[in-house]
Amino acid sequence: MTEQPSGAAPVTSSERVGELDVLRGFALLGVLIANFVWWSFGENTALPAQTEAFAQDPGNLAAIFFTDVFVSDKANTLFAFLFGVGFWVQMQRLEERGAEFGAIYTRRLFVLLVFGLINLFLIWPWDILNLYAITGFLLFALRGMSARAMLWTGLTLALLGMPLVRWATDQLGWAEPANEMAFGEVAIATRQDAYVNGSYFEWVEATANLVWFDWIANGLIVAWILYALGRFLVGAYVARQGWLQRAGELLPQIRKIFLVAFPLGVAIEVVRVLMGEAELIDAPAWLSKWLHVVGVPILDLGYAAGLILLFHSSRFGVLARVFGPVGRMALTNYLVQGVFIGLVLYGFHGGLALAGMIEPKVVLGLCFGFYALQTVFSHWWLGRYRFGPMEWLWRTLTYGERPTMRAQSA
């Protein structure tokens, strides 16, 4: 097999930041829960009457409450933050080797965009890879910002980007007609019928319509680009400061962050849900929305600090490290999660065709069960191979060389 060119080679196992893999693996659990619960419970696949029927069961309400408080927007925020961290770490390492970072990274993003578009239209309509690739080009363009500008631009976009774009599209009148085309009762019924009873090609057509109206025509893609870019920039700033790479030296400070951020983030999100979706606290709708904007990054900070502390614990470190192999195979595991959701909800190719019929409490249980299988598989696979299957393909297409797949024997 041809050797990699000097400098231009993937990160080796010894160079990996263990905390980064653990955090990414933990985020993937949240991604699976958020995607599966909201995709199956909401108007993407379920009629209003079906959703209302689910909500009569206390077990379903508990599953929704758990997902809303502990998972919603936290998983994608953590995942996006880690993308920014990974960007900066890769840039530093490639430049230290004397490799041309720009050429390598833009190829890497282009390949990711191709993967994302295939996933978006042919497998999983809520694909995030296409968004990350597009936003990654913007992050690359902004890499020369000062550290202070990177932090404040990131925080501003992370907190205000999506609310402001959604306000603007409402004012321009884009959102309402597009949302009606995507989520009017006739549109939902037509889509559900295609998902449950239709062929794969009818599913593709229904998915393309949903992507157009709920992703592009209503301007949501712009809101999400700014949302992701803000989180990318904050992640790049943290890596730029070396905080995650030096986490073992900063444990006292990280412990203080955890003791404040985790309980505060949970409290804010509980209050937000009780005054918002649950309507148990009388408050204006805008207050609930802005509490969520603030609560998400605080709770994510608590998650990250807690996992880092656990990772460095001599007694309980294994509880964190179990997430590591899942994070090392993040692309493979993410793509497989979309296939799994499809097999449960859709009827073609032997699927269970449960769209509109599967309860949130069942979905939540399936998420934990399937993630456990992914964890076992990831540990088994990486005990034999250096990369996950899709990670290997991504590296091959990025570097133009096939890296050795088999793990070296001890």
UniProtKB/TrEMBL annotation:
Pfam families: DUF418. InterPro entries: Bact_Transport_Assoc, DUF418. Residues 239-400 form the DUF418 domain. The chain crosses the membrane at residues 22-41, 124-142, 149-169, 215-237, 257-275, 290-311, 331-356, 362-382. The keyword Glycosyltransferase does not apply. Keywords: Membrane, Transmembrane, Transmembrane helix. It comes from the Bacteria. This is DUF418 domain-containing protein. The lineage of its organism: Bacteria, Pseudomonadati, Pseudomonadota, Alphaproteobacteria, Sphingomonadales.
